[in-house]
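Input record (one chain):
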Amino acid sequence: MYVERHWEGDPGAYGPRRARASFKYQAFVPDPIAQIDPAVPFETHELIAAAEAAVTALNVNPRVAGLEAIGPLLLRSEAIASSRIEGYELSQRNLARALIDPRAAKGIARTVAANVVAMEEAIALGEVDRPLTIDDVCAIHRTLMAGEPRAHPGELRTEQNWIGGRLDSPIDARYVPPPETEVYRLIDDLVAFLNRDDLPAVAQAAIAHAQFETIHPFLDGNGRVGRCLVHVVLRRRRVAPTFVPPVSIVLAARPNAYVEGLVGFREGRVAAWCASFAAALERSARLSVDLADEVAKVETTWFERAGRPRRDSAAARIIPILPAQPITSAAIVRGAIGVRHQRALEGLKALEAAGVVRRISETAWDQQYAADELFELLERYEEAIASGR
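The corresponding structure, as predicted from the sequence alone:
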């Protein structure tokens, strides 16, 4: 339902007279969902079941499970796509650099890197054996927005917010979420819904995400936190115990359809939204298997190019970790495979000589190496999704 609210104008504000005047506006208050039992047609049930089967297949596929680095790779892809939906554009290469080098974690790179950490927290939250709480949701936001004090990290909003239009008033907003007085009640209801286990996990993830976006409980970062909740649900329900496919890549490829689906949910078209989300999730899961196969081929190519080094050599042990750390250093390798610094550096230099990695830093004390072919592979993967191939 909609509730009418009064906006007190500011005669001294910048802009035309209309923007400075007081006015009435409509804020949307959604129905609670803790006890929702959505009517879903047979066709939608099939799509939900197909999505769950695809995510399960991703997690039990031995080709995927054999790639220890595929989880971090999928997580980075999800973080980049989720941030892109909010207007933050960053390449896989720049994100990888920001995650290992604080000097590179500035501006958008810092924002997207924070999204990676928030998603890792969401995954950990999906594995706890206890009921979820409002504090858990706030903790994800606190991590995501740690560098944005104006967003009040980890705090539910205490003022009205809106989407679109002007920054200083909701006069031309595309959507006005519930009043601040309704936020705690609605988030408490959402958490109760998240703690249910009597709905298909994919439908639960879809509804939880859409309801969260409808509530918009924080001043900023709502979209990214809402997509983190998808990971919480799929992990918690054991549909994706190891790998959650980067569904945001598919959603970002069709942003208008994504927004239309969320609007449809607010208007009561719950089944249609669940069907749209399930289709995106299924495609994401299938594409993740394809990506894992391509990564395995690249690793095989690297191994051959490096001259088939002994399996216990530093060079051979570095190759499987490169997809997780496509920009790396001796210090990172040392921690990842448990060897002395000098041996790690020798392994990287051997791979550099073979054309597997390329040195990208000039300083002698902090030499960084990049696996360029991995970035090229990820770029082709994202371009294929965006083009619908």
